[in-house]
């Protein structure tokens, strides 16, 4: 069996190809864009404030959120991805960092987007990721998750093209988010398009408004 590269090295190795593949992908994804727009509107309605895309890769979602009027920056564990993002979107801030230990103060953000980035966390580690998202989000801040849905199966590893990833029952991820202090605002399942293998899951959540 081939040993899995750590996530950062695995994404470093494919970053250029991934960036080319992903650059204009959102143009065709009507439902995905609708959800990103809903997230952006909720953050703007709450008074805007800083938003982070965690696991931003080449920055195309970060740039899309900027176009939707958000004050947004990106964080990724892959230095090559961050170099590509900085090069492509010179007006935006991108930082190398790990989303399970963010260099951000408590309550620093009004929004967090994890667009297919928690997918690489081992299932037992996901509660700690959600706790970190909750820590950096101000009370009432919004969290948007996109992931591969498991279509009736329990959480399961699959042969993602870059490195091991997990498909999740949407209810299980919603339960973990709730346990971390998030309330569900809404959810969306999208069937795979041509060329895609798995159903897509999306959860829109809001951090509890009471003091921690
Ligand atoms: C499938 S890509 C998605 C990239 C981007 N969100 C997009 O949609 O184009 C997953 C990204 O998450 C990053 N990532 C995975 N685990 C991470 C972690 N613990 N902290 C920060 N970034 C991480 C990877 O380096 C990779 O760039």
TrEMBL record:
Superkingdom is Bacteria
Citing just one GO molecular function, the answer is:
methyltransferase activity
The record ties this protein, via Gene3D superfamilies, to: Vaccinia Virus protein VP39
Query: Does the record carry Methyltransferase as a key word?
Result: yes
One BP annotation, GO: methylation
The residues covered by the Methyltransferase domain are: 51-141
- Which keywords, in A-to-Z order, does the entry hold? Methyltransferase, Transferase
Designated name of the protein: Class I SAM-dependent methyltransferase
Which organism is this entry from?
Saccharopolyspora cebuensis
């Amino acid at each position: 069996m081939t040993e899995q590269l750590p996530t950062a090295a695995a994404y470093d190795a494919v970053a250029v190809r991934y960036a080319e593949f992903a650059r204009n992908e959102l143009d065709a994804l009507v439902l995905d864009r609708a959800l990103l727009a809903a997230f952006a509107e909720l953050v703007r309605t709450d008074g805007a404030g800083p938003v982070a895309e965690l696991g931003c890769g080449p920055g195309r979602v970060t740039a899309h959120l900027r176009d939707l009027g958000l004050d947004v920056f990106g964080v990724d564990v892959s230095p090559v991805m961050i170099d590509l993002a900085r090069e492509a979107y010179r007006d935006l801030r991108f930082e190398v960092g790990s989303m399970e230990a963010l260099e951000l103060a408590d309550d620093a953000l009004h929004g967090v987007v994890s667009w297919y980035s928690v997918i690489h966390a081992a299932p037992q580690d996901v509660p700690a990721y959600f706790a970190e998202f909750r820590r950096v989000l101000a009370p009432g801040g919004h969290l948007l998750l996109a992931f591969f849905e498991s279509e009736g199966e329990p959480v399961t590893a699959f042969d993602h093209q870059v490195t091991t990833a997990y498909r999740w029952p949407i209810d299980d991820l919603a339960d973990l988010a709730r346990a971390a202090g998030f309330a569900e605002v809404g959810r969306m399942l999208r069937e795979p398009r041509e060329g895609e293998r798995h159903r897509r899951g999306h959860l829109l959540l809001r951090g509890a408004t009471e003091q921690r």
